[in-house]
Amino acid sequence: QKFGQYGMDKDSVYCHFRISDGDIIILLDADRKTFKSLGLGYGKDKSKVFCNCNQMELKDLDIESFETIKIKGYQGIPIAKDKNYFYAWDEALKDSNELKEFISEELSRK
Description:
Layout: E1 5-8, E2 13-16, E3 24-26, E4 36-39, E5 42-44, E6 49-51, E7 54-55, E8 67-69, E9 79-81, E10 86-88, E11 91-93, H1 96-108
Antiparallel strand pairs: 1-2, 2-3, 4-5, 5-6, 6-7, 8-9, 9-10, 10-11
């Protein structure tokens, strides 16, 4: 996988992004007590969502309902959703039609 992977110790949250130079990044803005890795390069804490080691700063992002989703037959860019939008990395897609369009474009590039 080429997606950010998260780890923790008693003090901090860390992220390793495999296609970067291999360094492990300390996520200074992550709340260690509430952080959890969601897989596919995403993680969240009580007040922020992270995508491949970067904080997602999107208007209307609903942290509580944010989760990753797997789409049968599609293994491209990781997809997530919340109660408002779908997300491809940190790009908000307003509805399922826009998501289908995005996936179709991704598949046509291969």
